[in-house]
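Q: what does this look like with acetoacetyl-coenzyme A bound?
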Amino acid sequence: MDQHQKYIALVTGGTGGLGTAICKRLHNDGYRVISSFNNVVKAEQWKQQMKGEGYDFDMYQADVSDYASVEKMVAEVEKNIGPIDILVNNAGITRDGQFRKMSVENWDAVLKTNLYSVFNCARNVINQMCDRNYGRIINISSVNGQRGQFGQANYSAAKAGMHGFTKTLAMEVARKGITVNTISPGYIATDMVMAVPEEIRNKIVAEIPVGRLGGTEEIAHLVSFLASKDASFITGANYAINGGQHVY
Ligand code: CAA
């Protein structure tokens, strides 16, 4: 790559809590950052807020759970900006509830948004990365994919699945200069975690040895490290970043 050309990073669900911190960090690192979004109204508000903070992100709409939608988005990004060097699979949702009562809709929604999305996005960028002999794929999983969590059979299954995917893809593309890694955050101060009822959340925080929720920028720091050129010998790994809540 021309040394003056910026690496291009696509962060799915960039408008969310973790996504925002990841977009900002990669932008500060000197990448050209593209955020994918699904909710137009939220995205417009976010773009204005980011502009106010001095960040001008490229934004593309896609339903990451839908292959055709992602295919179209990636084609547009490639045409308008260029090929994607760094893919951060960050988009995710929760639909918590005991498995005994879990609906097919809540199972499907979480599997499609959190896991099928990883296939949809990686599949649409991988051959171009192979052609260029360079790439970084970073999958944002969860401590609850590593250890399970009452009420999250759907989410834990999807998040555990992400790392199975990481391990195999890492092997398949290692010779092509592409690394594939998983990050498994614990409980981070985002809207998603704040949506857990306060009483339950307080019990969870009490189980974290560090004694607090994680900060979004702490996850972004790890993304930045794995995205860097210097991290080229790290692949197929799963980084736990959970304040000591789950050690193994
Ligand atoms: N272990 C054992 N029993 C539990 C339990 C636990 N951790 N939590 C709840 N229960 C029991 C209750 O004591 C109660 O028992 P009884 O029926 O005998 O009284 C029963 O389960 C609760 O019944 P509900 O009908 O209220 O349960 P529900 O199906 O509505 O589900 C829940 C409750 C939504 C799962 C709620 O417990 C909850 O929100 N838990 C937190 C889930 C969580 O941590 N989500 C993480 C979101 S953030 C995120 O996902 C980001 C990330 O990566 C970390």
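Strands lie at 8-11, 32-37, 58-61, 86-89, 135-140, 178-185, 238-241. The chain has a mean pLDDT of 97.
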